[in-house]
Amino acid sequence: MKRLLIANRGEIAVRIIRAANDLGIETVAVVSEADRSATHALLADQVVPIGPAPATKSYLVADAILAAAKESGADAVHPGYGFLSERASFAAAVADAGLTFVGPDASVIEQMGDKVRARQVAQAAGVPTVPGTPGGVSDVAEAVAAADEIGYPIMLKAAAGGGGRGIRVVADEAELKVAFPQASGEAASAFGDGQMYLERFVRAARHVEVQVLGDGSETVHVFERECSLQRRRQKVVEEAPSPGIDERIRTEMTSAAVRLCKEVGYRSAGTCEFLVDDDTGEFFFIEMNTRIQVEHPVTELITGIDLVAEQLRIAAGEPLRFRQSDVTKRGHAVEFRVCAEDPDRNFLPGPGKIGDVRLPGGPWVRTDTWLAPGSQVPPFYDSLVAKVVVWGDDRTTALRRAKRALSELVVEGVPTTTTLLIELLGQQWFADGAFTTGTLEEWLGRRAEASA
Amino acid sequence: MSRLEVVSPIPGVFYRKPDPDSPDFVKPGQKVGADDTVGLVEVMKSFYPVPAGTAGTVVEFAAEPEAVVDAGQSLVVLEVDA
Prior knowledge:
The structure holds two protein chains of two kinds.
Chain A: E1 3-6, H1 10-22, E2 26-32, H2 39-43, E3 46-51, H3 62-72, E4 76-78, H4 88-96, E5 100-101, H5 106-113, H6 115-124, H7 140-150, E6 154-158, E7 168-170, H8 173-191, E8 196-200, E9 205-215, E10 219-231, E11 234-240, H9 247-263, E12 267-277, E13 283-289, H10 296-303, H11 307-315, E14 332-339, E15 341-342, E16 348-349, E17 352-353, E18 357-358, E19 365-369, E20 376-377, E21 384-392, H12 395-408, E22 410-411, H13 418-425, H14 428-431, H15 439-451
Parallel strand pairs in A: 1-2, 1-4, 2-3, 4-5
Antiparallel strand pairs in A: 6-7, 6-8, 9-10, 9-12, 10-11, 11-14, 12-13, 14-21, 15-16, 17-20, 18-22, 19-21
Helix pairs in contact in A: 4-5, 7-8, 12-13
Chain B: E1 2-7, E2 12-15, E3 31-32, E4 37-43, E5 46-51, E6 56-61, E7 68-69, E8 74-80
């Protein structure tokens, strides 16, 4: 691997360029018309324009990216997260063009990206899954019969969906009969497949995920991340290790993730998502993300492993450099996602021109961002502008440092969620680690009522 | 009778239809109520419905499908009775 094309933008493109540079690999950025002077374009060795500003006309156009790879002489492509990162056809097209795809093989992306098939893999590997239908269900009568066996409340998910889209919870048969045709119709138009997957809905659930690294034959876990603090199923704060599981669950969950990855001969960095029942301590495999994740830095800070660099090494054909016993953790890390949204106007996105920018620094503070004074937040892409990640020798120390770091962050010109994140740090339930996937939205609801 | 422009509240990408397989929210000649949606504007992966804002009759679209629009830019022209 001599020259890497990064098929992405924003903070993750910057992150990948840095990892490549650290390994002595040249980099090629691709840019839409909105990103010609973006940070990832400024940092890369070469820049190739790939189309108009909307992502559907640039960052999501596989042919434009493959043409850019050819034009620039790149021999590898890193997809980042989002965009084309979990599209099996893109991974296949990259490989067919004679280039290295930084990620698992197309067949593994396809297998693990399909919830029904991923669940079958989990069951084959002896990894617990949420009680639910073994396959996709396409009509109401079938759904009602399945729901009787599983038990309410029930969650409906598009078999071909992703990113939390199209998910609904129903409390009883009457609700199911109304929701099923709607959800199935939406899935058919969004994904071209109306099949739905039914599963038990766990009321007090934590979202905990295990980071893995595999080289096709060996797999290690790199501990877990707690990602329960979500708004509209988008993560807001993530931490490692999880404050919500004990050592027994940690051991069982991480070894389950390793078994799952060995079952498919997983190659690259990946994440196995689990739902933990906070009342019983049971955990269930939900899905696998076959890419680097937004929240990967918290794992890096507690283990000292550069996950993106390892992805590149594995893609270049190197075997894993760690045995499981070499992977150890120390202290606690927390990531805060700073978005260009106004938390006091129902998170209305605020694109625009940025004025002054001052980033947090100091010991054990890492800010992954593309922000620069005078730069532009385009309206076309997601609203993440910075990730403020802190480490401390324990959780209390990390949270205190987080408050200090977030207070140092200044972004003029556009609204950001920074003040909300600082307010969150003042909540006792957050300090206690006493939360589930619904807690953040409940708090936001109370907060909105109080100010109304 | 007077003409009124429905403008985008935010910068983003304008859509005339709720999804690629559906018909447009409105068509010229159609009567709309103040709360009826005439289009969507996508900003930072969120979709915001644009209401007509006032009752009237649709004259024409002022923005192409999937056009990049600024805040305040005209999207749809209405004819209103006032």
